[in-house]
Amino acid sequence: MSKKRVVYEGKAKILYEGPEPGTLIQYFKDDATAFNAQKKAVLDGKGVLNNRISEFMMTRLGAVGIPTHFIRRLNMREQLIKKVEIIPLEVVVRNIAAGTLSKRLGIEEGQVLPRPMVEFYFKDDALGDPLVTEEHIAAFGWAGPQEYDDLISLALRVNDFMSGLFAAVGIRLVDFKLEFGRYFEGDSEMPRILLADEISPDSCRLWDFDTGEKLDKDRFRRDLGGVTEAYAEVARRLGIIKESG
Ligand code: C5P
């Protein structure tokens, strides 16, 4: 593990000071948490898989013009990223009803939504990351009006691209969560919005097209077992690793 100064420690990741100004090192832990950290476990190898899967997604998204914080992977568990000011919103895109959408609105899990749905949650563990509206976001200044529009269009572009990428390997992208940050380049006062954090089976719902088998963190949330095996299967199908396990 890096001996650098810890800038932030989250549930599944640690951010260290980077080697150059404006950079950070993102370290992927094996810790898994769910239900706002009420449920915890250590899943051997999860961090290694998420580092690789997130690298893959960020690189592919970068290649189709989505600006991201990813610079390069450093080793099994660490990647170099651009330091951003995180926008305090979790941007969730849903294609199929599941999770809190099903629970909150009584929509049956698995129902295909008429169109992709974008939701915003205020990032606040103490409040349990509540669902918020555009009015809240504007009133409390969490994102400006232009930023709000950008977040929606970026999230939908990510959804289009990732839906295709997963469909090509027999996986349905049910829903996922993104985080974005403001990046101040050089002396510029106008920040650019970059896709930040991670994209991995911790932050997506992924179902096998044929069997409906869950290949994501719901295996942990629902005590289904085989969590890292499922993440490895995702990595294997995407061609990131050769063998499962
Ligand atoms: O729980 P919910 O149905 O709202 O989650 C929607 C999507 O966002 C899921 O893919 C879930 O894994 C992800 N999510 C996340 N981090 C959170 C909340 C949700 O990655 N704090």
From TrEMBL:
What keywords are assigned to this protein? ATP-binding, Ligase, Nucleotide-binding, Purine biosynthesis
Q: What Enzyme Commission number does this protein have? A: 6.3.2.6
InterPro entries xref list: SAICAR_synt/ADE2_N (IPR028923), SAICAR_synt_PurC (IPR033934), SAICAR_synth (IPR001636), SAICAR_synthetase (IPR050089), SAICAR_synthetase_CS (IPR018236)
According to UniProt, the name of this protein is Phosphoribosylaminoimidazole-succinocarboxamide synthase
Q: Which HAMAP family match?
A: SAICAR_synth
UniProt pathway annotation: Purine metabolism; IMP biosynthesis via de novo pathway; 5-amino-1-(5-phospho-D-ribosyl)imidazole-4-carboxamide from 5-amino-1-(5-phospho-D-ribosyl)imidazole-4-carboxylate: step 1/2
Organism, per UniProt? Hyphomonas chukchiensis
Assigned protein family? Belongs to the SAICAR synthetase family.
Q: Which residues form the SAICAR synthetase/ADE2 N-terminal domain?
A: 7-237
**PANTHER family reported in the protein's UniProt record:** MULTIFUNCTIONAL PROTEIN ADE2, SI:DKEY-6E2.2
Gene Ontology biological process terms in this record: 'de novo' IMP biosynthetic process; cobalamin biosynthetic process
Gene Ontology molecular function, alphabetical? ATP binding; phosphoribosylaminoimidazolesuccinocarboxamide synthase activity
Reaction(s) catalysed by this chain, per the record, are: 5-amino-1-(5-phospho-D-ribosyl)imidazole-4-carboxylate + L-aspartate + ATP = (2S)-2-[5-amino-1-(5-phospho-beta-D-ribosyl)imidazole-4-carboxamido]succinate + ADP + phosphate + 2 H(+)
Give the top-level enzyme category: ligase
For this record, the Gene Ontology CC terms, alphabetical, are:
cytosol
